[in-house]
Specification:
The chain is α+β, with helices and mostly antiparallel strands and 307 residues long. The chain has a domain at 129-283: Thrombin, subunit H (Beta Barrel). The chain is built from 2 helices and 12 strands. The chain has helices at residues 2-42, 44-120; strands at residues 129-138, 146-149, 162-165, 168-176, 181-185, 192-197, 203-207, 215-217, 230-233, 245-252, 257-261, 270-275. α1 (2-42) packs across α2 (44-120).
Length: 307
């Protein structure tokens, strides 16, 4: 009975202390905060040293406590990476199988194509002879757009040859010297390029207008051309070989259809002159036929002797 009474009396003393502690804990913390603030104002150096000591003492504890958290995060990342790699592996296997299928189809089509060409006595495309030259001057102005390159007749450059840059048509050779040549850019007012709208097959003429956006002329009124369609050379007229990229349609209004050249004209530093063996419509001046109504040279006869 005595032990029971002692335990009851101790429990009765502890309960009020706990209740009072819970009631005044918030007030005690506020008072401690104000005390620390006043101590920081009164003795900033001592407070700074005390804070440094506390931080130094707590840092190892925080470090040890953060290790399990970091380990858990690393484990989560590893699990996520495992599932991601597994998903990616399945996707790559499926893509690999699809590519193998298309490789087999391409091989069969290649054999079939070669067989059909042999039966039709197909004439293969002519591989062009190419000369790469640097653009040494931009002779463009308000009324004409042309470039000067450092390759000429001694490099087998001829008038009318196609000039490409960045994989697309830049223009044609207009004048040729022994060591230089002038390239008429496709945006020049005098430039006319037979072309095809790749998506519709319509034959058009890419006409320069001295602006960065040449026009498409002779286009059918009911043509379903739209913005983004590719324009390529048609090869008609013997001016350019077929299939060279010219540009993309950027404006397909009712009154005008304009294209954006595929060649960045403002950043052309090198040009490639292509010789496909076509004479085009620009014969050399010495080979141009004389006009029937041209006056005879003074001091000569039809036999070439002096009078």
């Amino acid at each position: 009975m005595a032990k029971r009474n002692v335990s009851v009396s101790v429990a009765g003393l502890v309960m009020p202390v706990r209740v009072w502690g819970q009631r005044f804990a918030f007030l005690a913390l506020i008072a401690l905060s104000f005390a620390l603030m006043f101590l920081n104002k009164a003795e900033p150096e001592a407070f700074e040293r005390a804070r440094t000591v506390v931080v130094d003492a707590v840092t190892p504890v925080l470090n040890m406590m953060s290790r399990p958290v970091e380990a858990g995060q690393a484990a989560i990342i590893s699990v996520e990476s495992f599932f991601l790699v597994r998903t990616e592996n399945a996707r790559l296997q499926e893509e690999n199988a699809r590519l193998l299928h298309w490789v087999q189809v391409a091989r069969q089509l290649g054999v079939e194509n070669a067989t059909l060409r042999a039966q039709l006595d197909f004439v293969p495309d002519i591989r062009p002879r190419a000369v790469t030259a640097r653009v040494v001057a931009d002779t463009g102005g308000a009324f004409f757009h042309s470039l000067l390159i450092d390759a000429g007749a001694q490099n087998f450059v001829r008038r009318g040859q196609a000039v490409v840059s960045h994989g697309a048509l830049l223009g044609r050779v207009a004048e040729v010297g022994q060591r230089s040549a002038r390239v008429l850019v496709l945006t020049d007012l005098n430039s006319r390029i037979p072309a095809i709208v790749e998506s519709t097959g319509d034959r058009v003429i890419v006409t320069g207008n001295n602006t960065p956006w040449p026009d498409l002329t002779y286009l059918e009124p009911n043509s379903p051309i739209s913005v983004g369609d590719r324009i390529i050379t048609s090869g008609h007229g013997g001016v350019f070989p077929p299939g060279l990229m010219i540009g993309l349609v950027v404006d397909a209004g009712e009154g005008r259809v304009s294209i954006q050249p595929a060649v960045p004209l403002a950043r052309v530093s090198e040009a490639r002159v292509l010789d496909y063996g076509v004479n085009g419509i620009l014969p050399s001046p010495e080979n141009m036929p004389a006009r029937p109504d041209a006056p005879a040279a003074v001091g000569t006869t039809s036999g070439g002797s002096k009078q």
